[in-house]
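User: Structure with magnesium ion, C-alpha cells only please.
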Amino acid sequence: MLEVKNLSMRFGGLLAVDQVSLDVQEHEIVSIIGPNGAGKTTVFNCISGFYKPSGGQILFEGKEIQGKPDFRISRLGMVRTFQHVRLFGNMTVVENLLVAQHRHLNTNLIAGLLKTPDYREREKKSLERARYWLDRVGLLDLANREAGNLAYGQQRRLEIARCMVTEPKLLMLDEPAAGLNPAETRELDQLIVSLKEDYNVSVLLIEHDMSLVMGISDRITVINQGRPLASGKPEDIRENEDVIKAYLGEA
Amino acid sequence: MAAQNFRHALFCAIVTLIIAYPILGLNLEARGIDITLTGADTFTVVMVFIAAVVVFAFQLFRDGIMETFKSLPGLRSGGAHKEPMAENRRARIESWVITGIVVLALFWPFFVSRGSVDLATLVLIYVILALGLNVVVGLAGLLDLGYVAFYAVGAYTFALLSEYLGVSFWLALPIGALLAALFGLVLGFPVLRLRGDYLAIVTLGFGEIIRILLNNWTSLTGGPNGIGGIPDPTLFGMEFGRRVKEEGNVSFHETFGIAYAGEHKVIFLYLIALVLAVFTALVIRRFMRMPVGRAWEALREDEIAARSLGMSRTAVKLSAFTIGAFFAGFAGTVFASKQGFISPESFVFLESAIILAIVVLGGMGSQIGVILAAVAVTILPELAREFSEYRMLIFGAAMVLMMVWRPQGLMPMRRIHIELKGQE
Ligand SMILES: Nc1ncnc2c1ncn2[C@@H]1O[C@H](COP(=O)(O)OP(=O)(O)OP(=O)(O)O)[C@@H](O)[C@H]1O
Ligand SMILES: [Mg+2]
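Assistant:
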C-alpha cells in the first residue's frame, strides 16, 4: 500500500536520506532500523509530509503523495506518532482522543450550536470510540486526567490510541518503545501485533529495541548514514554482515 | 507560600477597590448640558473600603478558610488534580453567579442616571469586542493587532446601509456581522500563513489600511467627516425619538401612553447591548466545547501533533479569525447606533490595543476575566478624565504590572473539560 522509491532529503550540505526505497504491503509490519542519526525519522517526516523530499517518489495506494501537505496525507489514512511524545498536555486523556476524531465529527458550526441529532449522534459515537480505545490500551481509568500528568509509558500508549481513533490504514510509529521498561515493552509488542491482526492496520515501525523488532517485523529495512544498507526478513537481517558491521562499528 | 498569599491578597483587595469605588461610589449627573462627576458619600467609601479589607483577609487566609469549607471548590487554579465532581460543581456555581449578574444587569438601568447607562452600553460593546478577540488571541493563539478593522466594518456597514438604502438597525445587525466575518475570511486567508510577530505586524497593517480607506474614500464614506444621522434601533417598529422619523412608524412613548423621556432610548440600547453580550458569551462558550473549539486549542498547544492528525492549520485558524470578526461586526453595528455618528477617528489602532489589553488583563481565554477587565478598562478612563493625558501611561504601567505579577491575567482560563461519564 505504501511504496517509497529512491527517496532523498537534503538539508543544506547534508544528505540526510539518500536514495532510500521501501514498501509496506497490506497486513504487514515493516521496521526501519539503523544507528542514531541514520535518517530514520527524516524518512518518516518525508512520508508523512512534514518535509518536502528533495527527490524520489512516494506512493500511497497507488497515488503519488510526495510534497502534499501533512494534514492531507494523514487524512488518506496514514497516521504517525513522534519520537518525542506529542500529546495535548493540558487536555484530558479523552479529549485528546476527541481532537483526533474531528473528521468523524459534525464540524458544522450551526449544527453544533443547535445540537442537531446528527451532531449529537456523532459526538456520542466518537466518545464511544474513545472509550473503546482507552480500554484497549488500558487507560480507561485515567480518561479524565490531564494527559500531561500521565506516566511516560501511559503517554506513549495514549499517543497510539490517538492514532487509532482516526481509523488509519497505515500506522507509523517512531521509536514507540523508547523509555519503556521491559514489561511495558512486552505489552507494546502485543499491542502492535494485535493492531495488525485484529484491526487490519499495517505498521511502519522505527525502533532500536532489537528483540521487539526481530520479534514482530515481517520485513526490515536497515539505513546507515542516510543510505539503504539492507532489507529483508528478520532472519536475513540478523545474519547480514554489513548490518552487523554497521552496528558493531557504531557500538 | 505565605508571602505569595499576601501578595495575591493585596492584589485582589486593590482590584476590589479599583472596580468597586467607581461603580458604587461615583455618579455622573446631568446638570443642564454639563455632566458632572459627584464623588461618593462617606458611607459608601467606608463600605467599599471594608469590602476591600474583607477581600484581603479572605484571600490571605484563603487556604485555612478553604480547609474548613472543604465542600467549596478551591480558588487556586492550575493546582494538582482536581476532583472532577468539584469541577462540575464549580461550573454550576459559576453559571449561577453569572445568571445572577445578568438578571441584576437587566434591572439596573432603571435605577441609575442616564450617563451611567450610556457608559454601561459602551462597556458592553467592549465586552462583545473583547470576547470576540479572545477567540482569536486567547483560544486560537493568533496575535491580531488589527481587530478594530472588523469593528469598523460592522459600524460602517450599518452607517452606509442606512444612509443609502434606509436599512434599519435590526437588518443591519446580521448584515454587519456577516460582512465583518467575510472580511475576516478574506483578509485572514493570506495572513494566517504567517506566524507570531509577523502575523501581528501584518494584521496591524490591515487594520490601518481599512481605516485609511475609510478616511480617503470621501465620496462613499464622507472621509474624516464621517457619517451622521444613523438611526436608533426600533422596538417592533416603535421609535424612541420624540417625533417619528420614518413614515408609518409609531413612537414608543405614544404607544404606551407615557411621557417622552430620553432615557427610554438609552436604556433600550443598553438592553440590546446586554442581550448581544450574553449571546456572544454563550455562543463562544458553546464553541469551546465543540469540535472547532477543541481544534483551536489543539493547534495552539501542539501544532505539529494537530497537523499529524489531519487538522488543517489554515482552516482552523481561519475559523477563529472569522468568528472573532463576526462578533466585532456585531459590536460595530451597536456602536454606530449608539453614537448616531461615526468617523474613522473611532477606529484607530489605539482601540485595537485597548481591546487586546482587555483580553490580556482578563486572562487569555477566560470569559469572566475578560468581562471584568472590560468593565475596568472602559470605566476607569471615563472617570479619570482629568488625567486623560496620562491615560496611556497608566495603561502601560498597568500592563507591565500585570505581566510581572499576574501574567495569566485577572482570572486565568479554566478549561471546560469534557468528561467520559462513569470513570473514576
Ligand atoms: N530539520 C533538519 N535540518 C537539518 N538537519 C536535520 C534535520 N532533521 C534531521 N537532520 C539531520 O539529519 C540526520 C538524520 O536525522 P534523523 O533524525 O532522521 O535520524 P534518526 O535515524 O531518526 O536518529 P535517531 O535514532 O537518533 O532518532 C541527522 O544528522 C540530523 O542532524
Ligand atoms: Mg529518530
